[in-house]
Please model this.
Amino acid sequence: MKDHASDAHTLAAGYALGALEPAERLAFEAHLRSCEACRQEAAEFGATAARLAAAVAQPPPAAARARVLAAVDGVRQLPPRVPAPAGSRALGALLRRRALPLALAASVAAAALGGVAVWQSQRGADLEEQARQARRELDVVSAVLAAPDARTVHGRTANGALATVVTSARQNKAVFTAGRLPAPGTGRTYQLWLAHGDTMRPAGFIDRDGTVVLAGDPADAAAVGLSLEPTGGSPHPTTTPLLLLPLPT
Model:
C-alpha cells in the first residue's frame, strides 16, 4: 500500500465506515501508523457520516417495537451462505476497491433517505424540501467521488484545518471537505471561492466541519479559496484567504 498513496486515501472512507475486509483493514491500519494525512481523513469521514446521519435521525414511534415484534414470525429466513468462486471473490475485491470512495456518501445517503419518510409523515413541506435538497447534494457528492476521472488534492488552512478537494472533469463538479476549522466568530462565516484568473467568484459556504459541492463552474478554475467573511457572504473576498488550493489536474 505504501507504493500506492492514492489507493490509501481511497480506502479512508471505507475504513471509517467499517466497509473493508479484514485483510484490507489490517493493512490500512498499518499504513495509518505512518500517514498523518490518512489518519486525519479517516477521522473526518467518520465524523462527517455521524453528523449527517444525526441530522436526519428521528426517534421511532412508540408503537414501532410492537409492530416489529408482531412481524418477526412472517420474515423469511436468509438462504445459507455459499462461498463464492475464487474468480468472483477477486472481482468483488476489485469492485470494492474502486467503489470505496462512495462509502461515505452512500452510507450517509442511506441514513438521509431512510429519514425522508419519517420527515414526510411527521413534518411539513419545508422539511420535505430540505430532504430533497440533501438527497440532491449527496447524489452529486457520490457522482464526483465515484467518477473514473476523480482527482484529489489536500491542503491545510492558515488556521490549521485540513482541507480536501475532489474534482471530476466529466461531472464538471468539485467537492470541498474541511475538518477542525475554528469557530468563525460572531457575525462571520467561512466562504468558498473559485479562482478564475485574477477573479475570485463565490462558490458557497462551509461550516466548521463538513463536505459541500462547490457552486459555480470549476472547469477553467485554477484554485479553490477559503476566507472569513461577514455572515451572508461577500461578492468578493474582504480578508486574506485562509487557503488557496490549486485544483487537481
In short: The chain has two domains: 5-56+90-146, 151-246.
